[in-house]
Amino acid sequence: MEYKKQNKQSQAIKITAEEGGKVLGRASVFLIYNDLHAEPYGLLEDVFVEEVARGKGLGTSLVQAVIEEAKIQGCTRLIANSRYTRPEVHKMYEKIGFKDYGKEFRIDF
Fold first, then answer.
1. Residues of 73-87 as b/e, b for ≥16 C-beta within 10 angstroms?
2. Rounded to whole angstroms, how far apart are CA atoms 98 and 91?
3. Which of 14, 31, 51, 84 is buried deepest, with most CB atoms within 10 A?
4. Where does the chain show beta strands of DSSP type E?
5. pTM for the whole thing?
6. Please, are residues 79 and 31 in contact by the beta-carbon 8 Å criterion?
7. Are the beta carbons of 92 and 60 closer than 8 angstroms?
């Protein structure tokens, strides 16, 4: 058996929320290409909101911005991973439209 490697082009798009020149939150979508589809799928990563800005909907707004960007980029789906210890994050993802898909949260476009 012989295995061959082939590099696939992927990219990341970072979205930040700023106020008065200070970054209050961020989220990134990684566009991942594989041989199953011509279009990429998106991986939601690095969602973070500063403590002073939490509980005000900024995290939801950032994730919605990532969803829109993933659609613009032609993604077939967006996957979000979260630790079991973050039930409040799980509720946010589900409220936005992600489905608990086994060990990951996923939204298909």
1. eebebbbbebeeeee
2. 9
3. 31
4. 11-19, 22-34, 37-49, 77-80, 99-101, 104-108
5. 0.85
6. no
7. yes
Rounded to whole angstroms, the Cα distance separating 27 from 109 reads: 19
Residue 7 tokens read as 């590099």
Q: What is the enclosing helix (H) or strand (E) of 71?
A: helix 58-72
Q: Which tens digit of pLDDT belongs to each residue from 14-66?
A: 999 999 999 999 999 999 998 888 899 999 999 999 999 999 999 999 999 99
Residues 6 or more apart whose Cβ sits within 8 Å of residue 76: 37, 39, 40, 41, 108, 109
Q: What is the total residue count of the chain?
A: 109
- CB-facing half-sphere around the CA of 93: CA atoms within 13 A: 22
The residues facing 73 across adjacent strands are: none
15 forms bridges with which residues in the sheet? Answer: 27
